[in-house]
Amino acid sequence: MDKKKKKIHSMVSGILIVMLFMGSISMAAPTRVTLFLDKNQVWSTRYSATRSLKYSTVEARCITVYPIDGSKDTFTRIQVVVENSAGTDISNVETLYETSTIALPIKIKETYMNTRNVYFRFRGNHPSYAANAVVTYDGK
């Protein structure tokens, strides 16, 4: 029985190693951060990520957004944009909904497909209110 277990373990390990080298499995997890979103829809500080250049999209997700003053939470969405190192928008501004259970693919503009280092910026959805948010982002 021990020989069988060792043989199966070796086979599974070998398959996983081959899949990793072929790019079938990605071990990189999205980055998760809690951030402050100022009123007047001011963009947050930049959050960096590295792209593999295998995909034409990056991803972001809003886990939760809530008022900073402890008032009734009616907030449901925030906005995100992706920039290059020069601060140029390389994606459209997208809306992230906290009700979403998966990350939103964000299309990189065609001219910037070879941009490896990208920066995510987030802002609130309403100019009158500041908020806190928990987000994930991934350069893929």
Describe the SSE topology.
Elements: H1 2-22, E1 31-37, E2 47-50, E3 57-67, E4 77-83, E5 94-97, E6 104-107, E7 117-124, E8 131-138
Structure description:
By secondary structure, this protein is α+β, with helices and mostly antiparallel strands. The chain has one helix and eight strands. The strands form two sheets. A four-stranded antiparallel β-sheet has the order 1-8-3-6, with no helix packed on it. It has a four-stranded antiparallel β-sheet with strand order 2-7-4-5, with no helix packed on it. The longest helix is centred in the N-terminal third of the chain and has 21 residues, at 2-22. The radius of gyration is 19 Å and the shape is globular.
In a few lines, what is going on in this structure?
This protein has one helix and eight strands, in the order αββββββββ.
Total strand segments: 8
The chain-level structural class is: alpha+beta
* Overall geometry: globular
**Adjacency order of strands in the biggest sheet:** 1-8-3-6
Strand content: 35-45%
Number of helices: 1
- Terminal CA distance: 42 Å
Nearest-integer average pLDDT: 87
Global Rg: 19 Å
* Element string (H = helix, E = strand): HEEEEEEEE
Any low-confidence stretches, pLDDT <50, length ≥5? 14-26
The residue fraction in helices comes out at 10-25%
Biggest sheet details:
4 strands, antiparallel
